[in-house]
Design goal:
The chain is mostly helical. The strands form two sheets. Strands 1-4 form a two-stranded antiparallel sheet. A two-stranded antiparallel sheet has the order 2-3. It is built from seven helices and four strands; from the N terminus they run βαββααααααβ.
């Protein structure tokens, strides 16, 4: 008997997933190239070679950066273009997901989801490599919901807002944003930390996709159809 297939991902979710994946990949690579120009992080409004830095970053190798050699101008062009791709694709995805009730239906965290016993059971299931324990096939488990909510409504908005604050063109009308974030150097530090959070999420996400059965997961994100494991 063949495995049962269910419709798991709508077209808007699939399009946004791949567009976001491309944007994140380019933004991380170009961001590391920008970081190589001044690999130190500060808090406050100002930061220069002789100021106290709270973090000294490594010089990232060429194979991790975009372009694959040091060129600050080109890194900035790639970064700024795909920052727009990231921001507007996220906005479009959230609007469509509210209209088709994907967020309310699939990502809403209920009180029972956050109960300690429920969280502990989900952690144990993940440690045992049982990723499809929810009662309804295709339903997101609580760790997926928490991580997606943190990314959608936490890390992605933070990296976009801090990126806006770093743009010199925003000084005239949006100086209040820099004040809110504690200054340009604080915004830069928060931007980097948000990027680290998104990178860690991406690494864990890819690892879990492989462990959960990458063919089935990849098929569902391309076609929308997911085969329910036996």
């Amino acid at each position: 008997m063949g495995a049962t297939a269910i419709r798991r991902h709508r077209l808007a979710t699939r399009l946004w997933h791949w567009l976001n994946a491309l944007a994140i990949f380019v933004l991380i690579g170009s961001g590391l190239g920008i970081s190589n120009a001044h690999p130190r992080l500060y808090w406050g409004r100002y930061g220069a070679n002789f100021d106290h830095a709270w973090a000294q970053l490594p010089r990232f190798p060429a194979w991790l950066t975009i372009p694959a050699h040091y060129n600050l101008a080109i890194s900035r062009r790639w970064h700024l273009f795909f920052a727009l791709v990231l921001a507007f694709s996220l906005l479009g995805y959230l609007i469509v997901s509210l209209i088709n009730r994907h967020i309310q239906r699939d990502l809403r965290l209920r009180r029972r989801d956050l109960a300690p016993a429920h969280l502990a059971a989900d952690v144990r299931a993940h440690l045992a490599f049982r990723f499809h324990d929810p009662a309804a096939p295709g339903e997101y488990n609580v760790l997926q919901k928490v991580s997606y909510v943190l990314v959608l409504f936490g890390l992605l908005p933070l990296v976009i807002v801090t990126g806006l604050a770093l743009s010199p063109g925003m000084d005239a009308g949006w100086h209040w944003l820099l004040d809110l974030l504690g200054g340009r150097q604080s915004a830069r530090s928060l931007h980097f930390l948000a990027m680290v959070g998104l990178t860690l999420f991406t690494v864990v996400h890819l690892a879990l996709v492989i462990l959960a059965g990458w063919r089935n997961e990849l098929r569902s994100m391309i076609t929308g159809w997911w085969r329910v494991p036996e």
